[in-house]
Amino acid sequence: MRIGELAAAAGVSVRAVRHYHRRGLLPEPPRRANGYRRYGLRDVITLARIRRLAELGLSLDEVADALADDTGRDLFEMLVELDGDLARQQEALALRRSRLGELIERAREGRLHADDTVSAELRSVLDTVAPTPLAPRERELLTLLDGNPDRDRVVAAMPPADPDLHRRLEALADATVDDPRIPTLADDLAASFPPDLRAMVTDPANPLDAFGDAVLDSLRPAQAEVIRRALHQLARP
């Protein structure tokens, strides 16, 4: 049979057959005097096996390994590993659909906000942000934690909301860096940090470095000075 007949018999395209030839999965028979290659039953069987393995999700390199193993031992291990990968993907997909369902329900009830797309863990922190003039900016900055690999550890260490500290910090919006209120506010802010958060910001491999830079850049000069002084106090031995 010719290549088109081979492809039809195995349920693949001619292009796929040629691709498998290039990858070395399917041996090319020698050309006959008329210039055409002639395929036999064994070629159909091999091609059908390639198709079935590929449909299961094996890469072409894995298909090649499976074809080279007569005992089937390596194929068994590949299939078990693939099954595990699919199970993990299925679990992740179920979680994503559950999260989408929550967002759709919030949208139907008119309660959907731009930052509701963050993780449930971080959303629980956003819900505690004190309703001050700084709140919208603080919520925006906190959403950056969802891209932090240490997000869960950071979220668990976040201090409870303190409306008084927020109001005092907002009151410095138009102040200068030598405002007399800064030292006391810095002391109170440093004292509000829970032990786990203290340990994080004083760690040489501080996972909050980039987040901290974003916070300072978003603040007015006097407000940023409060944060710097508080962090400096925490860094003291």
UniProtKB/TrEMBL annotation:
CDD domains: HTH_MerR-like. It comes from the Bacteria. GO terms for molecular function: DNA binding; DNA-binding transcription factor activity. Coiled coil: none annotated. Keywords: DNA-binding. Residues 1-69 form the HTH merR-type domain. SMART domains: HTH_MERR (SM00422). Pfam families: MerR_1. The keyword Metal-binding does not apply. This is MerR family transcriptional regulator. The lineage of its organism: Bacteria, Bacillati, Actinomycetota, Actinomycetes, Pseudonocardiales.
